[in-house]
Amino acid sequence: MKPDLKQLLAQVASGQVSPEQAATQLNDQPVADLGFAKVDLAREKRNGFPEIIYGAGKTATQICQIGKTLQATGAPVLATRVSAEKYAQIAPALPDAVYHETARCLTLGQPLPAAQEQYIAVVTAGTSDLPVAEEAAITAETYGNQVKRIYDVGVAGIQRLFAHIDEIRGATVVIVIAGMEGALASVVGGLIDKPLIAVPTSIGYGANFQGVAALLTMLNSCASGITVVNIDNGFGAAYSASMINHLAAQKG
């Protein structure tokens, strides 16, 4: 995405973007080499969405520098797996950043415009799954999707699910997030005619094996139309769901 010149110059003047970073944007280079990272500036052109910052393992300074580089493109910036302690270090350098505490995500800039009718349903088995669910919801919203959150409707109290089934069925794509034995994905998959992306979480007691039990349940589901992502990967589920939802919006 070619940066808006006035916006880029304003960011340089305010110190948000260094002259070197601005020069990279104006030259339309596919990669910004920061020394410790090579930021992919062409990912949106190739994949539909810009590069996302995976915050775990990165220092606050590194996240700030990558964030400023991506912000200069004019696209919304998303950083996942950012702890509250790390955000406290980031906030002075990125005062425009919004921290989503439950999701452990940081966003910069305005989200992409959302389709008016199509939406993604994010469904969780329990309250303990909320961090993964909110990571999915914030990711989807950042990249231009309406999201309906349907939380704590697991199979232990299945009547809670049936109270929301029409809302779930109305979604373009459904993300189901569950730990323990992970049965919710199979149940929902047998009740809807839309793509379902299942996310196993690491929630559960010992034999859950930090999400492996839920992962195997979802992979072995007898309900058709279920795709499974990795344990606790709310981001990955939302990225795929966003691609599906945008395709539906284009056809609609």
From TrEMBL:
Residues 118-250 form the PurE domain. GO terms for molecular function: hydrolase activity. One of its GO terms (biological process) is 'de novo' IMP biosynthetic process. InterPro entries: P2CMN_synthase_LarB, PurE_dom. PANTHER family: PHOSPHORIBOSYLAMINOIMIDAZOLE CARBOXYLASE-RELATED (PTHR43064), SLL1489 PROTEIN (PTHR43064:SF1). NCBIfam families: LarB (NF033503). This is Phosphoribosylaminoimidazole carboxylase catalytic subunit. It comes from Loigolactobacillus bifermentans DSM 20003.
